[in-house]
Write a structure and sequence with these properties.
By secondary structure, this protein is an alpha+beta fold. Helix content is 46%, strand content 17%. It folds into 2 domains: 5-88, Arc Repressor Mutant, subunit A; 95-257, Endonuclease, Chain A, CATH 3.30.870. It contains 12 helices and 10 strands. Strand 7 (209-212) and strand 8 (217-220) form a beta hairpin. It starts with a helix and ends with a strand.
Length: 259
C-alpha cells in the first residue's frame, strides 16, 4: 500500500527536506546534496518514494516537483518549514514567549532559516547592538528595536553611524524615560540627526530585541517567563532578514514617531 501524501510529508524528515529543496525550482542530485548537506545515497530511497507517489519527477538530469507536488507544497510549505524550524532546535523554541508575534508572521516562523543561537560572553551580553554591528564596515541601513536599556549602546551608535547610514529605532516608553534621565544629550543628538528616526512603543507591548542590517539579523525573544535571557538568534539568510523586517514594520506601525 502506497503511503498517502500526508504520510510522505509528515513521517520522514528526508522526504520532507527533498521536497522543500525542490520548492524553488528543479535541482540535480548534487545540488540537493549541497543544499541538504546529506550524501545522496541517504536520500535516494526517499526520492524514489516521492517519484513513485507522483510528487516529483526527473527530466534530463534534474528532479522537479510535479503539478500535484507543487500544489501540495504551496499549501503545506509554511507547515513544513515550521516543522524543520522546531526540529532543528526544539528546546530553544519551546522556551520562547511568542505571544507578541502577530499570527501572520507566527505562521511563517519557518522562514527563519540557517540561523544559529549564540550565548554572548560577559563582555558583550549587555551590549547586543554593539557586538552585532561594531565590525560592520560602511553600514548603510540599520533598523533596531531596543529593549534592554544600556547607555553604552546609544553612545556606540552615535559614534558608529555616519551621514550615509539610515537608522530607524523603536524603543519602549520605559526606554525613552531612561534615555531622558541618563542620556539627554545623546537623545537630543539622535533627534537632531537627519538620517535617524525614533519611534516609541507603549508599555503594553513586550517586543523582541531586534537588529537588522543589509545582510544579517539578530533576534532576542523573551523566554516563557518573560525574562530577557540574552539568547541571540543570528541569521544571514535573506528569508530570515525579510521575515524580521516585516516584524519590525509591524511594531513600527504600532509606535508613535518621536518629534
Amino acid at each position: 500500500m502506497k503511503p498517502s501524501p500526508a504520510d510522505l510529508l509528515m513521517y520522514s524528515d528526508r522526504r520532507r527536506k527533498v521536497l522543500i529543496s525542490l520548492f524553488d525550482g528543479p535541482k540535480t542530485e548534487k545540488e540537493i546534496h549541497d543544499i541538504l548537506k546529506t550524501e545522496w545515497y541517504l536520500l535516494k530511497h526517499s526520492a524514489k518514494e516521492l517519484k513513485d507517489s507522483g510528487l516529483i519527477a526527473k527530466h534530463e538530469s534534474k528532479l522537479h516537483l510535479t503539478n500535484i507536488g507543487k500544489l501540495l507544497m504551496e499549501t503545506s510549505y509554511p507547515l513544513l518549514n515550521l516543522l524543520d524550524l522546531f526540529e532543528s532546535n526544539s528546546e530553544y523554541w519551546i522556551g520562547r514567549y511568542l505571544d507578541e508575534i502577530p499570527l501572520k508572521l507566527l505562521m511563517r516562523l519557518g522562514e527563519i532559516e540557517e540561523y544559529e543561537i549564540l550565548y554572548p560572553d560577559m563582555d558583550s551580553i549587555f551590549e547586543p547592538l554593539k557586538s552585532f554591528v561594531e565590525n560592520v564596515s560602511n553600514l548603510q541601513c540599520l533598523q533596531a528595536i531596543l529593549v534592554a536599556f544600556n547607555p553604552e549602546s546609544i553612545k556606540f551608535l552615535l559614534n558608529k553611524i555616519n551621514l550615509e547610514t539610515q537608522v530607524t529605532l523603536i524603543i519602549t516608553e520605559g526606554y525613552l524615560e531612561k534615555m531622558k534621565s541618563v542620556l539627554s544629550n545623546e537623545l537630543n543628538s539622535l533627534m537632531e540627526s537627519d538620517n535617524i528616526e525614533i519611534f516609541v512603543l507603549d508599555q503594553s507591548h513586550l517586543p523582541s530585541h531586534l537588529i537588522i542590517t543589509e545582510n544579517k539579523v539578530k533576534l532576542i525573544i523573551y523566554n516563557n517567563d518573560k525574562i530577557y535571557d540574552y539568547k541571540e538568534l543570528v541569521s544571514y539568510n535573506p528569508k530570515a532578514i525579510n521575515w524580521a523586517t516585516e516584524l519590525f514594520i509591524y511594531y513600527k506601525f504600532l509606535s508613535q514617531k518621536l518629534d
